[in-house]
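new request in #modeling-help
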Amino acid sequence: MIKVLFSARPAAWDEYEAPLRRAFDAAGLDCDLSRDHAPQDTRYIVFAPNGPVKDFTPYVNTRLVMGLWAGVETVVGNTTLTQPLARMVDDGLTRGMIEYVVGHVMRHHLGMDAHLAGQDGVWRDTVYPPLAKDRPITVLGLGALGAACGQALAALGFPVTGWSRSQKQIDGLTCLSGDDGLTTALSGAQGVVLLLPQTPATDSILNARSLALLEPGAFIVNPGRGPLIDDAALLAALGSGQVGAATLDVFRKEPLAADDPYWSHPRVTVTPHIASTTRPDTAAQVIAENIRRGEAGLPFLHLVDRKAGY
Ligand code: NDP
């Protein structure tokens, strides 16, 4: 029997137990899934940072730690974690992120807020929104989520430029990389979607200098991570009109403090880190596939590069 330890918050067990058992059966894996295997017997760990395992030292026979989350910034620096770490790439998570990003981009693109706030019996002079083809959007981060969101926006007609660390080629997107690429990607953008991981290299990537490159009145959608944005610079850019609106799902400190200026800003929408989440049914299949690979001696999927931090 392959001993698989489930280490996440208690409520997650109720969500994941049945889908994991189904996925193991479907993959023909003889797995013993439990929340309390002895460390030396544990071959795989299904892991979330809010679960009981914090020290990986005793898990000497563990072949892979399989994160349930896409973001790994809270575990990647754990010095006791010497086992390989996989992050979550899940079709359900990706679909949820596409829906969130497309929804908020369309809302800002169509100027919906003005109509929602203007239901007051006054028939105003109509301002037609431009067509998507005339609204360049930039997506920072072209991984599992950024590439999928960029392609969904491109399918709606937006000219989409994406930026990543390594140079990519993705159908329908203009792909850039490197420092010059970032400047080009942001210059004249009317909307920016942040889907970078939180690493030392991405901290405050949206700052006074980079925000100044955008088309005045541009909107920001950040479902990536809070530290990608220099908050003081964003508030200043909102104040000057350089940024027209922002949808923020993630923050340097979560939960966002009740007196944070983002809550009361009329052109900021705060969502409480709900852009998307791992969906047990599809995620269980990814976990089963990685165990199948481990048992067959094949390379694992979605391994984290510890040095790069994601
Ligand atoms: P991936 O690891 O698949 O993609 C990350 C992308 O960012 C890659 O394209 C990578 O480049 C790029 N990148 C990383 N560092 C740099 C850098 N220094 N300069 C330029 N590009 C860089 O991650 P996902 O797409 O799966 O997820 C992205 C993030 O979304 C997660 O890290 C997490 O923080 C966030 N997230 C938020 C959720 C929410 O509900 N709010 C839910 C899930 C995820 P390259 O391709 O060259 O490696």
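bot summary: The longest helix spans residues 91-110.
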